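Subject: sequence -> structure tokens, single chain

Hey, anyone have a minute? Need the predicted structure for the following. Not urgent.
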Amino acid sequence: MEIEFNTASFKDFENVDGLDAWKRAGLFQNYLNYLDNNGRLNYRLISSSGCGPEMNILTKDHPKARKMVSFVSNDYLGFTQHPKIKAAVIASIEEFGSGAGASPAIGGQFSYHEDLEQKIAAFFGRESAIIYTTGYTANSATLMSLLQKEDIAIVDMAVHASVYEGCQLTNMKVFLHNRLDLLERTLKLSRDAYRTKMVIVDGVYSQDGDIAPLDKILELCRHYGAYLAVDDAHGVGVVGNTGRGAMEMYGILQEADIITGTFSKTFGNVGGYVIASPELINFLKYQSRQHLFSATSTPAAAGIIRGIELLDEEPYWKDQLWENINHFRNGLDSLGFDTGPTQSAIIPIKIGDASVTAQMAAILMKAGIYTNPIIYPAVSKKNARIRTSVMATHTKEQLDQALNAFEDAGKKLGIIHKDPLK
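Reply:
Had a minute. Here:
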């Protein structure tokens, strides 16, 4: 099988006819070399500084790390660098050491884990939570435990890869993004055909940054006897009056059957959580394999507890984030870029052509702007874009530097033509 490297994507190498795993890896290495030689491999770049609005990045054409304005971090409030959170992490490590040493069921459940589970549940006004070592497994492990061959998952096509992985053991129907008519049709057809029916959506979607109409989705779930699971990894800390995310925005915090999310974005750490009824949470604590058979999170997780508290104690971080979001998006829109329907800190610059998208990322990199090109299969082939994440800690000068670089790149590639001053 011939693969044309110029138009290929990572997905083309998942299973190549006639090639065993080692030969497939060799072919994929040739593809990576091709991308690198053509300035199109800006993935897995090494940073010599922490995540933030500026990062020191090592690139192929510079022998030393170069300071760049960064739009690749989902640390929306800048909490990875917050001195109070750092202090909480250091104090916890001093008290408990560097690791947990065991899985939660057989000696790896410490007081800071209990405190964190109680704190994140209370944050959403709920009783019970379970924590995982990643947000990815919070989705995949939970769904694998709850949904079997007698059940069905009804999934918005734009949900995270972790949801798709979690639904491998069950039946799955996918509906077009935010198309409530198609969701309702699937619910009607599934009403009497399956034991457990679960609708799974995001609050804020990770690629377009748009928000699910959760109130209407909940209404459909209740009407057709389905459960609702909401992954609001990108909404918490960003939307809602008090930063409780899209569910707060729609007034359904107490209505969603399952809430999932991550500690790696707003809360500046790593890990995931699931919020549900006490019975369901206890079931997961003993039936979810990735939780039961994995060493639990390190004492550094105590920083998450402080982050949850700071979301209420220092609400000005969310206010500053929205000042930056509006400034950056308005600037991009005025230049003539297509930023889509975003309602969050995720601002896509939609280009459409994967090759042109890679060229833009390379031009931006040379100008000192670090961004991620997002191409198929992360998005459809016609939806390639530069994905940017805005942070509360970006300065106006950094945002304007990026806007100038986007303008130059857009004109050079023929993506934009108009003069924003006219």
